């Protein structure tokens, strides 16, 4: 089954718009465990002062087969992109270069599309570095109270 150009177009735009977050999650996941895949759902987006946010998870290779079997076996979930099977996704995760590439699964409504992201304009490690350097920009609601404003009896809570 071929995907329509409109369907693929919005997905490519989504990836381009969120590449920094995708790369950050790919590298952070790799650093904390092993190679794996980024899974993002556009279902039930959150809305905040910075716009829409989407649930994104890193699934390490050691847990990916079980995750895919459970997720894609759901009766209302269909994997697109020429009907790739779990084995193809697992093979991509086994062989991708985490320093320059990412494996990405994008869920929208009841469809999942598999992307093997290569030749990225910014490497996952660079995405991670940029996000870490500007963390306050990504977390504007997080702030520390000046020490003077915290009552003395609240400063040393066990």
What does this protein look like?
The protein is an alpha/beta fold and about 160 residues long. It contains seven helices and five strands. The chain has a five-stranded mixed β-sheet with strand order 2-1-4-5-3. Strand 4 and strand 5 (about 110-115) form a beta hairpin. Helix 2 packs across helix 5 and helix 3 packs antiparallel against helix 4. The longest helix has 14 residues, at about 20-30. The protein is globular. Residues about 140-145 and about 150-158 have low confidence and may be disordered.
Question: Ends: how far apart?
Answer: 60 Å
Quantity of strands, as a count: 5
Strand count, sense and closure of the main sheet? 5 strands, mixed
The tally of helices reads 7
Strand arrangement in the largest pleated sheet: 2-1-4-5-3
Order of helices and strands: HHEEHEHEEHHH
- Helix/sheet category: alpha/beta
Low-confidence stretches: 142-146, 148-158
Strand content: 15-25%
**What's the Cα radius of gyration?**
19 Å
The averaged pLDDT comes out at 79
The amount of helix comes to: 40-55%
Question: What layout of secondary structure does this protein have?
Answer:
Layout: H1 5-17, H2 19-32, E1 36-48, E2 51-60, H3 61-72, E3 78-79, H4 86-95, E4 102-108, E5 111-117, H5 124-133, H6 135-138, H7 152-155
Parallel strand pairs: 1-4, 3-5
Antiparallel strand pairs: 1-2, 4-5
Helix pairs in contact: 2-5, 3-4
Task: Give me a quick take on this structure.
With 158 residues, the protein is of the alpha/beta class. The protein contains 7 helices and 5 strands; from the N terminus they run H-H-E-E-H-E-H-E-E-H-H-H. Strands 2-1-4-5-3 form a 5-stranded mixed beta sheet.
